[in-house]
Structure formats: C-alpha cells, structure tokens
Amino acid sequence: MLNKVTPAVYYLSNVDSKERPTLGLVCGDKFSLVIDSGNSVQHAQDYLKEIKALNVPPVKYLVVTHGHWDHILGLNEFGATIIVNSLKNQILEEWQNYSFDDDSLHNYVESNRMSSKCMEIIKNEIPLRESFKLNAADIIFEKSLTIDLGNKLCVLETIKGTHSDDSTIVYVPDDKVLF
Predict the structure, then answer these.
(1) What is the pLDDT along the chain (179 residues), one digit of tens a residue?
(2) At 152, is the secondary structure helix, strand, or coil?
(3) Least enclosed by CB within 10 Å: which of 62, 80, 105, 174?
(4) What helix, strand, coil percent values describe the chain, rounded to 5?
C-alpha cells in the first residue's frame, strides 16, 4: 500500500526481507514521476498496481536516485522517460551489458559484481531473464534538472552521498519533500 505524505507525494515502504527499497511517487496535474524502479520486474509491477489504484495522472518520468541494483532492475516496466545523472548512467550502461542466465549470474557473484541475494531475487522475480536487458536512460543530466509535472515541480540534483557517489536527490519545493 502506498503511504501518502502530501496530496501529491506518496511512497511505497521498503521490504528488507526481499531487498526492496522505498520507492517514491510525485503527482502533478498532467503527469506523475516515479522515484526509483525497484529491484525486479515483479517489484515494479507490484508498485504499478498500487499507483493505478490511486487514479493519478500517468507516469511520464522515472528518476533513479543511485545505481545500485535494487533501484534499477524494474526500469523496463514503467514505459516512462528514464532520467539519471551522468555518473549513474555509467553504472546503468554496465548493467545493460549483463546477461541474466544462470551461468552469468553465478560468475557475477563469484567475481563480486553481484551479491548472492541479488542473484536469488533476479532468478525469482525476473521472468524471461535469459533475454532480459535493461533499457537505456532517456535523459542524462550533470548537476541539476527541473521537471514540471503540471503545477508541480521536481528539482533533481546530483550529490556525493555516503551511500553512493552517484546519488540524485529529488526535491518537491511546494510540498517541502525530499527523496
């Protein structure tokens, strides 16, 4: 279930046992913006069902806060314009070159490019993974970018965070909400 922060801002709580991070949603008069895509096809589909139940404007944009696997593997499910900063795009491009068959996944785990938990989730929650390829970013920005959702602005800024060097914050000034 989505948690309402303001009339225009929602979030889906994290689920630690499934390595599912918190996901955000900002709704304007014309469009909605999703913050992070989830850790798998299944996570993204579950989130989309929750969004559909709200009867909000269509999701037009998807912003990735950082390039860890649990924030990007649901990208393809939204049919949205994917927005990343330039550092994150380098990580996304690496993941676009990954193969998701059993042998490749085991090799990634053995070479420390992927955790065993990540491999387990991919195997369980990404159908047709032998042909799975992540979509590329549509908009790549350097320092900041402002998105107008129709009477609702979202300000994206690249920051160097303690969790990840490729972090993006999403600020909704009218609602004084920061992701």
Answers:
(1) 899 999 999 999 999 888 999 999 999 999 999 999 999 999 999 999 999 999 999 999 999 998 889 999 999 999 999 999 999 999 999 999 999 999 999 999 999 999 999 999 999 999 899 899 999 999 999 999 999 999 999 999 999 877 787 899 999 999 999 99
(2) coil
(3) 174
(4) 35, 30, 35
